[in-house]
């Protein structure tokens, strides 16, 4: 039996209630990767579409001082509609030995900065582990008006001395999560 009354849907005995003020959640794949510091060893934005072992691998680059992360890249996507929530998740790991700190940030189109208020930081593991950055407050700041573009910045730096000069990290999947609209 399929009955639909407004936002209340009964399908094969499963009740789905949608609050009209929130759309269903959708996953948006990155369409572009831009490396700001570092070098792509293998893979590209399409490697991030699904968790399948096909990965984007990035090597560190020489940077002018220790405040700059030797691996820094941004991922871009375009949302299908306006949204009241926004998060970004990436499944990554360190490839080489050492201790590495990874940070995620959303780009704020109002301030034209990668917003420190969206920052999340943690240590990269040797096995694939997911890290999620959630946009706070009014998320429209993180969505470009003209084309609903969103951008997330991924930064990695070593914690203390690293045993390998050309250290690498890699990423199997990345995605934005937003509302599908009212
Ligand atoms: Ca993949």
Description:
With 182 residues, the chain is mainly β. It has a single domain (23-179), classed as Jelly Rolls, CATH 2.60.120.260. The chain is 0% helix and 49% strand. The chain has no helices and 15 strands. The strands form three sheets. Strands 4, 6, 7, 9, 13 and 15 form a six-stranded antiparallel sheet that branches. Strands 5, 8, 10, 11, 12 and 14 form a six-stranded antiparallel sheet that branches. Strands 1-2-3 form a three-stranded antiparallel sheet, with no helix packed on it. It is globular and about 50 Å long. The protein starts with a strand and ends with a strand. Bound molecules: calcium ion.
The CATH first-level class comes to Mainly Beta
Distance between the termini: 25 Å
Q: What form results from the Cα inertia axes? A: globular
Small-molecule binders: calcium ion
Overall number of structural domains:
1
**Unreliable segments of 5+ consecutive residues:** 1-18
What is CATH's topology name? Answer: Jelly Rolls
The named CATH superfamily: Galactose-binding domain-like
Going by CATH, the architecture would be Sandwich
**Count of discrete alpha- or pi-helical segments spanning 4 or more residues:** 0
Query: Percent range for helical residues?
Result: under 10%
- Major sheet characteristics: 6 strands, antiparallel
In terms of DSSP E residues, the strand content is: over 45%
| Run of helices and strands | EEEEEEEEEEEEEEE
Radius of gyration, in Å, reads 19 Å
Structural class category: mainly beta
How many individual β-strands?
15
Roughly what is the average pLDDT, rounded to an integer?
89
